Amino acid sequence: MSDHELDARNLLCPMPVIRVQNKVNQLQAGDILTVYCTDPGVKQDIPAWCRINGHALVGEPEERDNDIILTLRVGD
User: Is the pLDDT of residue 1 over 90?
Assistant: First the structure.
């Protein structure tokens, strides 16, 4: 298991989700991905994408300054 980060700041829907999907496809099950976004829609879109695709959101989306930070664990 390893930790990864993805900068999806200043991207609008659907690009943050597409970038997350592309990144997750490069990772192994159990890896942790922290995503930095600015589009408020990701607070609903990325958790929904995780549920549909078998990944798990770790905690709640966090807001820090202008960033929305989501952490997910890659599923099988």
Answer: no
User: Is the torsion defined by CA of 62, 54, 18, 2 positive or negative?
Assistant: positive
At 13, list the tokens.
Answer: 């829907």
- pLDDT, the chain, mean: 97
Domain around 51 = 3-73
Q: How far apart are CA 74 and CA 52, in angstroms?
A: 12
Residues labelled as active-site residues:
13
DSSP code at position 70: E
CA 73/CA 65 separation, integer angstroms: 24
Task: Count how many domains the chain has.
Answer: 1
User: Which amino acid, 28?
Assistant: Q
